[in-house]
Amino acid sequence: MSHTLLGTTLNGRYRLEARIGAGGMSTVYRALDETLQRQVAIKLMNREIASDSDQLERFRREARAVAQLSHPHIVGVIDAGEDDGRAYIVFEYVEGETLKDRIRRVGRLPIPEAVAYSIEIARALGAAHARHIVHRDVKPQNVLIDEEGRAKVTDFGIARTLDEEGLTADGRVLGTTDYVSPEQALGQPVTGQSDLYSLGIVMYEMLTGDVPFKGESQVAVAMRHVREEVPDIQSKRPEVSSALAAVLETATAKRVERRYADDAELIADLEDVLAIETARAGSVGGQVTTVLETLPSGKRRRVPFWVRHRIQAVGMAIVVALVVAGIAGWTATRTHRGSERLPQAAPAPRLVQIQPCSGCAHDYNPDAIDGDKTQNPSQAGLAIDGDVNTAWQTQQYFDGTLGKPGVGLYVDTAPGIAAREVVLYTATPGWAVQIWARKTAPNRNIFDAGPNGWIQLATVANVGGKQTIPVNTGATRYRYYLVWITQLPPNQQSVSINEIALYKQT
Prior knowledge:
The chain is an alpha+beta fold. The chain has helices at about 45-50, 55-65, 100-105, 110-130, 180-185, 190-210, 220-225, 235, 240-250, 265-280, 285-295, 295-300, 305-330; strands at about 10, 15-20, 25-35, 40-45, 75-85, 85-90, 95-100, 135, 145, 150-155, 160, 350-355, 360-365, 390-395, 405-415, 420-425, 430-440, 455-460, 465-470, 480-485, 495, 500-505. About 30% of the residues lie in helices and about 25% in strands. The chain has a six-stranded antiparallel β-sheet with strand order 1-2-3-4-6-5. Mean pLDDT is about 80; it is low at about 160-175 and about 310-350.
């Protein structure tokens, strides 16, 4: 039937051009809106079930439900109608692929990308839940990824409002059982928390490339969702942070009272995790950057500043391009006398931050008096994790003095860089610091300054909360850079280094 409809026009307006999807209840076509001359998607109810009044009402209800929703991550309804007894819904046409297709094509997704998509899907569900609409069939097949990389939730085909009765009565399991919540599998009342469980399973698939449960039948899979815990994500993908693992565990809790209470709770934790996973990944893709730009200001401050600088640099590049274009246009309308030229300013050198490995910061305490030469080594990585809210801290010096030449942290930048700038973040401003560098691995028992050891690059007597320290290494590439604390802040017994950022010239 569906192929014979190609080329036909519904109600004199929508010409069906290609079939792009099909289900038991309806077929989806790409169509041309001949009135507005634009591509649209048409969901056309299959004729063989159009005589079923319950199914017809359910189809109409989908149109009413989604028509209430206007959100950048929900595929929008444009129109609805009936033609020759066939009900249809007109949607915006999204060029791209489904999230399921993407997972099949590339396998497990980069962790920040999976988190970014989860945030967008959760925001879409939040918009629906705010209108008391539960999707009831959240799965990657129902998430479209458009050409710009944005996620858009579609197919609210079994959605219904929480205050609506009848039609899809409790006791009937609806939805794909690969992602079904325990309560939905048992035919119990379904709420927005059920959608969040399904989103948790989608997250699991994005991170691992596969669904958590398999079975000989859909019922067998559904019962595993009821009875079995979702496998530990870190056992499947060890590089996933404990923060993301905790989000996944909460989203997929079997008992509703242990699950996220609402979308806002889940989104808040996912936004925190996006900052963490972005820092751990060491790079970001286009879609991750787009989501990072939408974080609330408080959350955005937790994003690694090397990423924020990159985002700002892109924005600045656009501004500069517009300004240059404007100047070019202005000068093109002017006639210059003789060979006069405006003075050309030398371009400012561009600095980029290097991102050391997570284990590349080391405490340094060669002059320890008591023989213990460690200074909270387990915290050292917190000074280069991209999060200014975490910190390495020195030991406590209860008399307010170090009692030795210094103590600090050094960063391994293997194979080495010619640094131009060091930026320090601290929650305990007011301490004195020296910046040193060397090519060879330091002796942890001796502070050996000199041509074959540490070379001093800079000194600051009073470090601020954010302290930028220019350093001149010339063309010399040093591997190890030392932040050497020589004096505690006034009336303080310790120093916190929240972040060390090293910049080189491109």
